[in-house]
């Protein structure tokens, strides 16, 4: 497709996302749901005006990167460290419960061991972009439960990557490659650890005296660079973007970083969420076997994260702990990547892939719809000093 065609597709995505966001805001619902539905509307499933392609996929990835970079800018490291124990527990339990549940259910319905392992792995990693958008929209990023979700999402990504490396290694070679897994763990820990260690230095960084065009220009380059570095290591780029934003959080007011970066995010993030809808293959989701198995897997996926989040964050009170659990529920692109790897390795068939696709859709739609009333419930208790 020539350049004008790509521009037209971006226009359709943005227009549909804005109209649906307006409608959902008027209905009192999370706008992210409207943006996902906008992608379904203009995508191949319905109108067929927008199709998957490298340019749109790249813009969508940039949208996720800038969304988490912006969230990082609004999150100070000391606030994350203050809830570090809870974030670690939430991440570990939120990986263990869904993985075991998915694996056992796969065996129960007749899957072989390897497809069952891939099913469990697809349920592991949280797609924090959906939750981050809701937290940002409701203005609660400073709350302890929001910081637990964001901190847990970083740990969750590292743990999910390790589980995926183990299962993918078994699929390819029939054995666990301990050397490669150890290297992956050390690189991931080094990346996060160095970012944490450098935070005090970045808080004093004189952006206006650096040999760069502007403080905002430096911030943009730094955020994208951190995302690229994370991707090089094997982590999700959004983890690097979030850490990059967090390193600059202490400087955002001094150098007025927030407004221009928010403007860029406001352009790109709706493309990311709309492309979630464009990618959905509705025909694969309406097969009776897929509907039944997909519904059960979705329940396992949601309950696993909710239970892990609730138990891990219970020190914050049962209302905040419930918000954390639901906030960790979306799976998004991570689950699809796992299923696609299984498909490529011959360990997962089309039916099993469709079950994962159903789960991704269900958890993506469930979390924002459930989060809004749950956050209102938690905020009411906070205002009156209750649990």
TrEMBL record:
GO terms for cellular component: membrane. It is a multi-pass membrane protein. GO terms for biological process: proton transmembrane transport; sodium ion transport. Keywords: Antiport, Ion transport, Membrane, Sodium, Sodium transport, Transmembrane, Transmembrane helix, Transport. Pfam families: Na_H_Exchanger. The chain crosses the membrane at residues 6-24, 31-49, 55-75, 87-111, 117-136, 148-168, 180-203, 215-248, 260-278, 290-314, 353-375. It is found in: Membrane. Residues 16-377 form the Cation/H+ exchanger transmembrane domain. The keyword Secreted does not apply. GO terms for molecular function: antiporter activity. PANTHER family: NAPA-TYPE SODIUM/HYDROGEN ANTIPORTER, SODIUM ION_PROTON EXCHANGER (EUROFUNG). This is Kef-type K+ transport system, membrane component. It comes from Thermus oshimai JL-2.
